[in-house]
Amino acid sequence: MAATSTRAKNTISLKGSSAIVAEYFNYAVNNILYQRGIYPTDSFRQEQHYGLSMMVSKDQGLTAYLQTVTKQMSTWLEDGSLQRLVLVISSAIGSKEVLERWTFVVETDKAVLDGGPPPEVPKESIVKDIQAVVRQITASVTFLPLLEDPCTFDLLVYTSKDSAVPTDWEESDPRYISQGEDMKLRSFTTKVHKVDTSVSFRTRE
């Protein structure tokens, strides 16, 4: 009897895709907070992710907060209710004006949500696309206005209206930027979730 050779398909499940996207959010937020100087540079450490050297916060409070948010987002990604994540950077003094608004828009394949077969996509392809987005975020300091004042940040999560929201979460206004400019960055897809990244920023007067 002749032998046959087989190989595992590069399929990705809804749960697996949700984990990849949530992880990306965590590292993207860390990268932005470092690049934009929201926290002191010595409060970050260098780690290897996606084949890149990335800066990750050592602050225990911030790390715990981001882990809580990304864990909840994983749940919303798995049920298809997560629509977007917005990182808002605002001045910590005076009028606390919104200076930057980083937006991650999520599209979910409804066929997979409805129990369809998991799509095939090489993990290397996903990692390559995420690398490109992270590199763009890192290079953003070359075109974004300098943040001269101390700044704070907030994370806004947009979900479907019927989503279950933890009791310790609260509603927020959208925190839009008045007379800002928009810059669209690259996107990536797991073929279950597609994530588009962009940044809006307040222009120099």
UniProtKB/TrEMBL annotation:
It holds the Pfam family HORMA. One of its GO terms (cellular component) is cytoplasm. It is found in: Nucleus. Keywords: Cell cycle, Cell division, Mitosis, Nucleus. Its main location: nucleus. The keyword Cell cycle applies. GO terms for biological process: cell division; mitotic spindle assembly checkpoint signaling. The keyword tRNA processing does not apply. SUPFAM superfamilies: The spindle assembly checkpoint protein mad2. Belongs to the MAD2 family. PANTHER family: MITOTIC SPINDLE ASSEMBLY CHECKPOINT PROTEIN MAD2 (PTHR11842), MITOTIC SPINDLE ASSEMBLY CHECKPOINT PROTEIN MAD2A (PTHR11842:SF11). This is Uncharacterized protein. It comes from Tetradesmus obliquus (Green alga).
